[in-house]
Amino acid sequence: MSDNTLKKTFLNKCEIKAMDAEHKRKLSFNIGKYNDTVVKGKMQFADLDNARKKAKNIKWKTIEDLDKYLVEFEMNFTKNGGKVIWAQDAQEANEAILEICKRHQARQVVKSKSMVTEEIHLNDFLEKNHIESVETDLGEYIQQLDGEPPYHIVTPAMHKSKEDVAKLFHDKLGVEPHLTPSELTLVARKNLRAMYTSAEIGVTGGNFLLADVGGVCVTENEGNGRLTTAFPKVHIAIVGIEKMIPSINDLNLYWPLLATYGTGQNVTVYNTIFTGARKKDETDGPEEMYVILLDNGRTNLLKDPNVRESMYCIRCGSCLNACPVYKNIGGHTYGATYSGPIGSVITPHMKDFDEFKHLSYASSLCGNCTEVCPLKINIHGMLHYNRTLAVKLHDTEFTENTAWKMWKLAMTHRSMMDVAGAGIKTKVVNSIFKNSWGKRRDELSFHTSFKKMFAERNS
Fold first, then answer.
1. How confident is the model at residue 363 (pLDDT cuts 50, 70, 90)?
2. How far is Cα 194 from Cα 304, in angstroms, rounded to an integer?
3. 3-class DSSP state for residue 329?
């Protein structure tokens, strides 16, 4: 059994963030802008519901035959002159990257936004090996300056206001205080431009893997992904195995869906397909390209049919923006790379179930996450399954088990409930929930029972 350290940390952070009015104001403001744009973005679809169903069916087919598609991708990517590395876990992936860095005597790496590199803690690993890793996405760059992980899987610095960023740049970069967002962007651009040409290696993630052409798709709005791959001699793409789709022809469906549900755009500004290193007749691009296919717990999701559907996720972040829990406690509270509803589903299976099962309880099971998912993934159903699995594995605490047994006993024996008068019920309930419900609320008071009220109204 876990010592519940992660759970206690999570609850403590929840307590702080849920009561932080300024934090909730910033988050509400940014999510509000997102919601407005998504409504407009959805208007591009003549039949949105059918598009979502089709996208889900394609992903279902892909994940059910994932082994075949992975082999097909490797064969086609290798034909184009690329090199594929299979990594079972974070250590294997990091060691493979380090070996490539050493071979090319690299001392600096530029990165385009990638949640997978956050998952394997690549920046920390490279730093320990005396290699500088620089984030080039503006949001990630802000977070790296502040020494924080991404707050949101699409908008890494969603919890920061423009005043927060201005102060951060002043403190860390020595620029004038109170700069406007446009001026801050120019500062970041100036600092990063020189690094693109000096770095020996560029690292990206991948939004999709294309089996039929052996391609890696990178979707972005700033152009940093293209700069990261155009100048360095080596391009390393680290991609989770679940990002596979069968064909390049499927992108006309997935790119608009990802853009609409991710940022509210019709399509993202820069959409690039990498199929290998620079060809003889090309003027830019890397001399070598590697794709690291990462498992790191994903096959745990694959082997359990009850949560396999979570592998359909295209990381648009819409479930985070819709979740009432996320909107109160924010991204950092979860203590995991992937936060919000989808993160609460996959993290316990990808990591240690006993240590992270508490995340599945951080949900009202309202179903809004499932409703807004572009692929109609049954997210709240899988959160419920994780809770059920925790009980089956006897990973629940004694006090919780006892409480549910008492509740079941009372609910199935009406006479026991009738014996306890309103005064006893009031005292017992307020005593049990003193440190949870009653901590910030008035005490509950039971004046009568539903049975008596029903009898009186129908007499």
1. very high
2. 47
3. helix
**What are 395-438's pLDDT values in tens digits?**
777 877 887 888 888 888 877 777 767 777 788 888 888 877 77
- Per-residue CA distances from 135 to 16, 189, 193, 333 (Å): 29, 12, 12, 22
d(CA 142, CA 187): 12
Instruction: Name the token pair of 112.
Output: 């385009």
Buried b (16+ CB within 10 A) or exposed e, 178-215: ebeeeebeeebeebbeebbeebbbbbbbbbbbbbebbb
Query: Is 45-296 CATH 3.40.50.10420?
Result: yes
Integer Cα distance of 418 and 389 in angstroms: 34
- Cβ atoms within 10 A of the Cβ of 154, count? 20
Task: Phi first, then psi: give them for residue 352, nearest 5 degrees.
Answer: -100, 115
Q: Which two tokens stand for residue 280?
A: 């003889």
Domain map (residue ranges) of the chain: 5-32+299-392, 45-296, 413-457
